[in-house]
Each structure stands twice: as C-alpha cells, then as structure tokens.
Design a protein that fits this description.
CATH topology of the largest domain: Rossmann fold
Number of domains: 2
Radius of gyration: 21 Å
Helix content: 40-55%
Number of helices: 15
Largest sheet: 6 strands, mixed
CATH class of the largest domain: Alpha Beta
Number of strands: 6
Strand content: 5-15%
Strand order of the largest sheet: 2-3-1-4-5-6
Structural class: alpha/beta
C-alpha cells in the first residue's frame, strides 16, 4: 500500500510518519542516536533564532545577558556540543524578559523551532551524557524534509510505504512527477490549523493557511484523473485550541477568515474544514475524508490510522468493481 504524504513546510507530515513507526515497529538504537543529535541541534538552532528575532524586534536583553546573547548570535551550531555547561547558558538567556517577550510574539512568525518550551523544560535531561530520547522527544524533534523519504512497515499482512516529500516550494515541484509515475493507493494532504495568522515567507501579504489552500487546490487538479483515495488531515489541533482561546488570535481568525461563530476550537476547526472541502466541491470531487488531528497524540493517531486504512481499502474495492 503506497501512500503519498503532502503538505506545505511545517504542516506536520513527518510527525505523522514518525507516529507510524512508533505504533507499528518502534525506533532502532541507530535512529535514537540520530534523533539525539537532531534534538541537540533543535535546542541550539531554536535559541539562536529566538535571540536573533529578539534583536530584530529591538528588544534589549538585560545587561548581564548581553554577552550570552552575542555568543548565541555568532555561534556555529554544528560546531557546538550541548553539554550541561552550554545548557545552563541556554536556560539563562531563555529566561531573559526580552527573550520571553519575543517568544510571546513568535507564533505569528515562521520560527523553525516552535517547540522551544518543550525543549527547555526537558533540557536538564537532554544534556546528560547518557541521554536517550523518549518517544515523545522524537515526536517533538524538528528536521526539515528534503527530497523523498520512504517509511515502510507491516500492518495486517500488508506492507505500507509512506512517501514523505518536502513541502518547500522547490520541493513541491516534484509532487506531480511522483503522482504521475508512482502507483499510489492514497494521498494524504496535511494543513496546519494554527497557520491562519502566520505570515508566509513565500508570498508577501499572504498567510501560510492561504498558501496551504492554494497548494491543496493544485494537488486536487493533479490527482483528479487518478483513482486515488484522497484524505485531508487538519493538524495541530493542540496549538489551534490555545490560539482560539487567546482573544487577539481569535480576532485574527474572525478578521482574516470571515468567521462569525462562537469562540470554540471545534467550531472553528469545522469552519476551516468546510473551507478546504468547498474547494473540492467546486471541482466535483465525490468523496474526500477529512480528519482534525494532533499528530503528537499517539493514541488518537492510532485510531485515525484505522479509519484511514478503511478508507483506502474501500476506495480500492470501489475502483475494482468499477472496472
């Protein structure tokens, strides 16, 4: 069973793929060591970009932290080793009021490491010499997908291949070729619910959500002539719930998307789901299954995968009967 995983950068495709490994086979010792290195880099990349962002906002760190801030701005991440001494520097600058003020404003920006609160809260454990990443650590790890990554596992006597392709604009140019020349059984498109008020780096004046909807329509045009099961995953419900509870973010939701309903995350997510599905309806797609998910929730993803499996098998059966 070949399933293509698509979505713009940061939509959570890779987290879902990691969940499939967690659920069906687990990570090898080699993979755990690899994620240890990735998580250490996440900490350093995250604190560096946050310090730079603070400087860009012209927020001044305290006098006692100026030297530390300069250190992180100038450091070369790949040359650093995250030990207990460096971890203390990270925590010290993280707790600076200017850095915290910048972090409050960070959700509207495209910071690579939007998981810094998790990383900082687990930093004392992560910097130890004998540190071994937990499953939750690995799910929180951030690594940009480039090229084509294939994950294989077995479920109910079927071998599954999940093909994860990078979501940056240059990587998206490869999608059509993969769809045209791969015998796919399904395409899962990921969109981040929390991206409705995040500025896009691809197009000035557009949000990441607007870009995601645009790319969704492009995907629909590409696969409309193929007998492929299409699924829509609206991801990051956990972050979305926090945003909708915040008055400023909720006002953005109403203003940007024209929403007039209650301040309720479930209702707001349904509103977004309907916007995505409206694009499919004008193209006369008969059946697209949409799921609102949090890719970090292993239990929920296990349930969703069972539904996805059923959707794909039913599509195969319908296609076989059609021919």
């Amino acid at each position: 069973m070949k399933v293509l995983i698509l979505g713009i950068s940061g939509s959570g495709k890779s987290t879902f793929t990691k969940q499939m490994i967690v659920i069906h086979q687990g990570f090898s010792t080699y993979e755990e060591e690899r994620y240890k290195s990735i998580l250490h880099q996440n900490v350093l990349i995250g604190i560096q970009e946050l310090v730079k962002y603070t400087d860009k906002l012209e927020l001044k760190v305290s006098n006692e932290n100026r030297k530390t801030a300069r250190y992180f701005i100038e450091m070369i991440v790949l040359e650093e080793v995250l030990d207990e001494k460096l971890a203390q520097k990270v925590k010290k600058i993280w707790n600076d009021p200017a850095i915290q003020n910048a972090w409050v404003m960070a959700p509207q920006m495209q910071l690579q490491m939007n998981n810094m609160e998790y990383l900082i809260s687990n930093l004392d454990r992560m910097c130890l010499p004998d540190y071994k990443p937990s499953v939750e650590d690995i799910l929180q790890a951030r690594q940009r997908t480039t090229g084509q990554q294939t994950t294989t596992f077995t479920k109910d006597k079927y071998t599954w291949e999940l093909i994860d392709v990078g979501g940056q604009r240059p990587e998206r140019e490869k999608w059509e070729n993969i769809i045209q020349h791969t015998q796919l059984h399904a395409v899962i498109y990921f969109a981040g619910l929390d991206e409705y008020n995040m500025n896009s780096s691809e197009a000035q004046g557009k949000t990441k959500m607007a870009i995601s909807m645009q790319v969704w329509e492009e995907v629909l045009h590409t696969i409309e002539k193929h007998q492929i099961c299409l699924l829509l995953f609206l991801n990051k419900m956990d972050l979305f719930e926090k945003k909708i509870k915040n008055e400023s973010d909720f006002n953005d939701f109403k203003t940007i998307l024209g929403y007039s309903g209650p301040q309720d995350a479930d209702e707001c997510s349904k509103f977004l789901r309907d916007k995505f599905l409206a694009i499919t309806q004008k193209m006369e797609y008969s059946e697209i299954h949409a799921h609102v998910i949090c890719a970090l929730d292993t239990s929920a993803i296990t349930t969703v995968f069972e539904a996805v499996k059923e959707d794909i098998f039913m599509k195969r059966l319908a296609t076989t009967q059609h021919f």
